[in-house]
Design brief:
Blueprint: H1 2-17, E1 22-28, E2 34-41, H2 42-51, E3 53-55, E4 58-60, E5 63-66
Antiparallel strand pairs: 1-2, 1-5, 3-4
Amino acid sequence: MKKVVIAIAVLGTISFASCKKCEHCHYDDASGNEVELGELCGDELKNAEENGYTVGDTTVTLHCEEH
């Protein structure tokens, strides 16, 4: 029984450690319309939040909600 509990704890720890933060994001275009980007995860999300998201030659500010 002890081995089963340890195995479950190890698997749970590994699954939580491998989770990536993902958020559903959009930005507002020049007309004020909301443009959906879908879900961004991991480094792509982090970079976009810190540096903005580039659309063509314009960098826009993202609005994201955690899921």
